[in-house]
Design a protein that fits this description.
Chain lengths: 109, 485
């Protein structure tokens, strides 16, 4: 540490305890980054709109794939029909999402 | 776009202070003290006001060298944190039983030959009936011996134990005190331990043989005395109302002359009518010759005439600050200064103690009543409500556990937002019991005073760290002592 000078014994102990270890590929000056998740949220919790770099490049893409991959367990990016109970055939006409995504239609309860 | 740009930082709990022209920070709850450079100080102050991204910091502080490494340093010691990192809850860790007993306070009598009107033991706020209660008025030799066995056993693997004799007026039971010391030394030697003794007295019963014995046996002595004659005689009176100053002053001088094996301290009770700290200090150190003087505000319910009100605490703090300034200048010059309150606080600051409990009561310190009942501390000795065992049957572990569960700092919501809690931890249980009728209550009536005093001591600590760090090194050598008052 160059900007803080430990003065009392507790400060010295904290200094020793938090001294950065030598770690391969250590890449940042900020050793205590908060954890930014890479995958989807654990449960039904929308709200993370940035990836771990602070951008959008690492989010689920393309949106077509996203719709398919996320529509059972995940809320984001949009509300989708309940395919398990009420709309089992909702994606029947959509064999390949990238190509056929326009064939997915609205579902009315 | 980078993480740093998106993430906001916010200062965590801390107390910033300046000493010797430099900025310092006291971190809460770790109790670590750091000296800051200009950039670190600027980042801390800015993030204390609002959450800032790196860009905000650049805007506020200008593009200066080392901003990122400063942020890294402050993050590392948790002076600041990312706003989305939740502040950790105070972990409620109850020490594992059996916790070794360090100090046992033996109330060898509950009788006193003085009738100090403010006394917590006999005055209007007393919690034990010492006149008609079931406790004997004097501890028997047998109970004292059992107490010695108790402390030696409960000290566990500690090589040393400490016994403090207390009262009442301790010396009213000098014969038992004398025999107990002999017995304890012999028993400790058999067990390969050492035992150390101290006592508190009002000095009225000191006489040459007693002084001789105390000196020969290295018994630490604390004298309860309030100051010059008119101050002492205001509250510290005999049954018939006459003051005790003229009785005690020559005896204390004799004690100080003969007893050179341990430093002898005075313990002063401050009241609304008795707040002239500097004058009292001068008298007790210069005229009488005490090595050190400690002050404590009287423990009382708020409606008593002698209770110290808000204005009184302010006055007391101002005087403490002046005296502490003297202490600082003496310490910078490596001269002794006997203001013991500041030294005790400096020691705790130096070690960085962050207390889960305000004191050792019920933990490393226990009080024993004249009948051998064990209480949280000497101030509760004899009270059934605060009993945690007997010297014969040992510590009631369930009662002790319940006590510790209920009094942990994590329970004290009032304290959770106070930066002084690492040192104060809510304050004296007995004071809280007297003020609020509840030992678990934080002592809210003196919060401002505690914060003010801690700030004074932090500044002195910071000054000493710059101007005479060698002075602080003494605290690395000395074992920590608990004061009994």
């Amino acid at each position: 540490m160059t900007h803080l000078k430990p003065v009392n014994r507790k400060a010295v102990r904290i200094d020793e305890a938090t001294a950065p270890d030598v770690v391969a590929l250590q890449r940042t000056a900020l050793p205590l980054l908060p954890h930014f998740p890479i995958g989807c949220s654990l449960v039904f919790s929308p709200g993370w709109e940035a990836d771990r770099t602070g951008g959008t490049a690492g989010l689920c893409q393309p949106v077509e794939r996203d719709l398919f991959d996320c529509h059972i367990g995940c809320y984001w990016p949009a509300q989708v029909p309940d395919q398990l109970n009420h709309a089992p055939d909702w994606t029947a006409k959509c064999a390949a999402a990238q190509k056929d995504w326009r064939k997915i239609d609205l579902v009315f309860p | 776009m980078t993480v740093q740009a998106l993430t906001s930082f916010r200062a965590r709990e801390h107390h910033r202070f300046e000493a010797a022209g430099k900025p310092f920070v006291y971190l809460v709850p770790s109790a670590a003290i750091y000296e800051l450079d200009d950039t670190a100080d600027a980042v801390l102050r800015t993030t204390a006001q609002r959450a800032c991204t790196r860009d905000d910091l650049l805007d506020a502080l200008g593009d200066r060298d080392g901003l990122d490494s400063t942020v890294a340093d402050l993050l590392r010691v948790q002076a600041i944190a990312h706003v989305d990192q939740p502040t950790p809850q105070t972990p409620k860790i109850i020490p594992l039983a059996p916790f070794p007993l360090t100090t046992m306070v033996l109330n060898v009598t509950n009788q006193c030959n003085l009738s100090c009107t403010y006394c917590y033991e006999y005055g209007e706020d007393k919690i034990v009936d010492t006149e008609n209660g079931r406790q004997p008025k004097f501890m028997s030799e047998e109970t004292a011996r059992q107490s010695v066995e108790f402390v030696l056993k409960e000290s566990g693997t500690n090589p040393a134990a400490h016994i403090t004799f207390f009262g009442g007026e301790t010396l009213m039971n000098f014969p038992v005190l004398q025999k107990t010391i002999g017995y304890a030394r012999a028993r400790a030697a058999e067990l390969g331990k050492t035992v150390d003794f101290s006592l508190t007295t009002n000095a009225t019963l000191l006489k040459p043989e007693i002084i001789e014995f105390l000196a020969d046996n290295d018994v630490g002595v604390t004298v309860s005395i309030d100051g010059p004659r008119e101050v002492q005689d205001k509250f510290r009176v005999f049954n018939n109302g006459t003051g005790s100053y003229d009785v005690v002053a020559p005896k204390i001088r004799e004690l100080l002359r003969r007893h050179r094996s341990r430093p002898i301290g005075a313990r002063v009770t401050l009241t609304s009518a008795n707040l002239d700290v500097t004058r009292i200090f001068r008298h007790l150190t210069e005229d009488i010759g005490f090595w050190e003087v400690g002050f404590a505000p009287v423990t009382t319910s708020p409606d008593r005439a002698h209770a110290i009100g808000d204005g009184g605490y302010d006055r007391m703090l101002a005087q403490f600050r002046d005296l502490a300034g003297e202490f600082l200048e003496a310490s910078v010059a490596n001269r002794h200064h006997g203001f013991s309150n500041v030294k005790e606080t400096l020691e705790e600051l130096h070690k960085g103690v962050s207390k889960a409990f305000p004191c050792g009561a019920g933990l490393g310190l226990l009080g024993v009543a004249t009948d051998g009942d064990v209480a949280l501390c000497h101030r509760f000795a004899g009270s059934d409500t605060h009993k945690v065992g007997t010297v014969r049957d040992g510590i009631d572990r369930a009662a002790q556990q319940t006590f510790l569960e209920r009094h942990h700092i994590a329970n004290k919501t009032d304290c959770s937002v106070c930066w002084a809690r690492p040192l104060c931890s809510g304050g004296c249980y007995h004071e809280a019991h007297t003020r609020y009728g509840d030992t678990t209550h934080a002592n809210l009536h003196y919060c401002e005073w505690i914060r003010g005093w801690t700030d004074v001591c932090l500044k002195i600590y910071g000054e000493l760290s710059v101007r005479n760090p060698g002075f602080l090194a003494q605290f690395d050598r000395e074992p920590m002592t608990e004061k009994i008052s």
